[in-house]
Design a protein that fits this description.
With 133 residues, the protein is an alpha+beta fold. The chain has one domain (7-132). Helix content is 33%, strand content 26%. It is built from four helices and six strands; from the N terminus they run ββββββαααα. A three-stranded antiparallel beta sheet has the order 1-4-5, covered by helices on one side. It has a three-stranded antiparallel beta sheet with strand order 2-3-6. β2 and β3 form a beta hairpin. The N and C termini lie far apart (37 Å).
Length: 133
């Protein structure tokens, strides 16, 4: 029997722009907590609840400026990027592999196209170690 894939519910994502950092990326601050939970067949899975607190600062997707045309920092993947940034800054017992997998799964739930989420997931798998360590 195959394991069921969780469905993720995410919300709300409300943020304000703060300033540009030294690399020219805009920084944002959450205005209210963002809650994420996983369910299988409508039942919430124990331990798969994430709360990113109000006030958390993020650059959304950490994409080099050269690639912004194809992968803008903000977009339909923004909520997934906030959760990913949260895990990279506050590990909370989560491995890098799991943080990246949740990022990918959240993008699926948000309706991010297959090619875009695959490219973004591969980028964090290949280059995320620099920030993780």
């Amino acid at each position: 029997m195959f394991a069921k894939t969780p469905t993720w519910s995410i919300g709300p994502l409300r943020f304000e722009a703060l300033h540009e950092d030294s690399s020219g990326r805009l920084r944002y601050r959450l205005l209210e907590p963002m809650r994420v939970r996983a369910t299988v067949n409508g039942t919430t899975l124990t331990g798969l609840r994430i709360t990113v607190p109000a006030g958390f600062a993020t650059d959304l997707a950490s994409v080099p400026r050269f690639f912004w045309w194809w992968f803008p920092p903000a977009g339909d993947h923004a909520a997934a990027a906030v959760v990913h940034d949260w895990f990279y800054q506050h590990r909370n017992g989560v491995s890098r592999f799991l943080a990246d997998a949740i990022f990918r799964d959240l993008m699926t739930s948000l309706g991010v196209s297959v090619w875009r989420r695959w490219c973004m997931w591969m980028a964090v798998r290949l280059f995320g170690w620099r920030v993780w360590r």
